[in-house]
């Protein structure tokens, strides 16, 4: 579990990228459902993309629902956007939805796999109700696209 780096109000391009349960195991799945890149490699890839776009990215992961809720609440007033892959909590977490609904910035939901081509219980996302957009099924490229889309949403709001 990694804590987000402190952000300040002066850092107008701060975005928090929150990853839920088991994302830390990316690249270790024998079926390659989530690709072959490890979580640390994916984090580095996302940090590089954010730097290219002049954004500060707090890229973190937790296996605990309450920690994700705490981070969403901490982002209020200091982050311009949240990108979230709530993983398995996508389909069950009203607390994460409620926290996201209290966030006034932009929100993008992202998934490594195409959740609509998987088990039927994955076809309903609580997170989507709070999200400005959803990117799914593009693996690590989807993570980068989410960062690019967030940069555009923030620029439009300025």
TrEMBL record:
GO terms for biological process: amino acid biosynthetic process; aromatic amino acid family biosynthetic process; chorismate biosynthetic process; quinate catabolic process. The keyword Cytoplasm does not apply. It catalyses: 3-dehydroquinate = 3-dehydroshikimate + H2O. It comes from the Bacteria. The active site is at residues 34, 111. PANTHER family: CATABOLIC 3-DEHYDROQUINASE. HAMAP family: AroQ. Its EC number is 4.2.1.10. Catalyzes a trans-dehydration via an enolate intermediate. Gene3D superfamilies: Dehydroquinase, class II. Belongs to the type-II 3-dehydroquinase family. Pathway: Metabolic intermediate biosynthesis; chorismate biosynthesis; chorismate from D-erythrose 4-phosphate and phosphoenolpyruvate: step 3/7. Substrate binds at residues 85, 98, 112-113, 122. Homododecamer. This is 3-dehydroquinate dehydratase. InterPro entries: DHquinase_II, DHquinase_II_sf. The keyword GTP-binding does not apply. GO terms for molecular function: 3-dehydroquinate dehydratase activity. Keywords: Amino-acid biosynthesis, Aromatic amino acid biosynthesis, Lyase. The gene is aroQ.
